[in-house]
Amino acid sequence: MNYLPEPFRIKMVEPIQQINRQQRIEALLRAGYNLFGLRSDEIFIDLLTDSGTGAMSQEQWAGIMTGDEVEAIDRAAKETIDRAAEVAAAMPEPSPEALEDEVYAP
């Protein structure tokens, strides 16, 4: 049996097309056999670089954007803002003279 890998380029999962043998030969000749000279649409599986090794599918991204992580970020941001407001409220308000001295110091 001949097993081919799934036809996806990893960044966000997107379907890709495999070019035929003749197209691959022409692409390699055009690039001077330099794999870095190939266009991304001419690469079916990239075994040369580690690009895409930590990529997530669009479903995974959607889950993050709509899931508990977003709520946790919102809660953390609100806690930070509330804490900053408490610290600011506890500080004495400077007199106008003190502000003037800091801004217009000689």
How would you characterize the overall build of this protein?
The chain has 106 residues and is mainly alpha-helical. The protein is 47% helix and 4% strand. The chain has helices at residues 21-30, 58-66, 68-90, 96-103; strands at residues 8-9, 14-15. Strand 1 (8-9) and strand 2 form a beta hairpin. The protein is elongated and about 80 Å long. The chain starts with 7 loop residues before the first strand and ends with a helix. The relative contact order is 0.09. The model has no long low-confidence stretch (mean pLDDT 77).
What tags apply to this protein structure?
about 110 residues; mainly alpha; two-stranded antiparallel sheet
Task: Please outline what is shown here.
With 106 residues, the protein is mainly alpha-helical. The chain contains 4 helices and 2 strands, in the order E-E-H-H-H-H.
Question: What gap, in angstroms, lies between the N and C termini?
Answer: 84 Å
Radius of gyration: 28 Å
Q: Uncertain spans, ≥5 residues at pLDDT below 50?
A: none
Sketch the topology as an H/E string, one letter per element: EEHHHH
Apparent shape: elongated
Can you summarize the main beta sheet?
Answer: 2 strands, antiparallel
Range of helix content? 40-55%
Strand content: under 5%
Helical stretch tally: 4
Query: Which strand order does the major sheet show?
Result: 1-2
Total DSSP E strands: 2
